[in-house]
Structure prediction request, 185 residues.
Amino acid sequence: MMLIPTRRAGLSAVIAAVVTGALAVSAAPASANASDGYVSGAYQFQDDFGDEGTLTTSSYAHTNATALWQWVLWAEGAKKSNGDPFRQADIDCRFGSDTRSATISLQRTLELEAIDGKVGNDTFGAVDKNIEYVSTDYDSSAYRTKLRYTGDANAFFLYRSSTGVYRINIPNVGWKPASYTYANC
Prediction:
């Protein structure tokens, strides 16, 4: 009689493990950062962007997160469809046709597999290696890390707060969080 409960317990454990494993395999990893509302990171900053939300003409198309991506396009010297470089004056928080064509230009330069004008994990992740530490500032017992993104053509500063949220300089506005839910320009 002792064998039956042991076998049932063993069988139950095996079934539970199989179900748990199946759920883990079938669940697609969600972008925790987009659902949190901000471009954010933790630990080393050179791997912060690879798990961000997808930016397109229809997804987070008018946000500060798009402005962060536009800074990257400017820094990398990406080209718009007319061949002109993406300029600092083009940073407008809107993922429009110029941002899309400059994204395609950068995807080609980076020799990415998908050349589709969408800023997904591979595209965003391919550029975070260009982030370097500058300094750590302490302000009212909180700290923020000052970083520099250095592209092929230009460089810009950005900050990551103690909670991991990135802040960017919105032209004519000032330093704002890289939000997926609102735009300051």
About this structure: The CA atoms of residues 11 and 17 lie 10 Å apart. The longest strand covers residues 131-139.
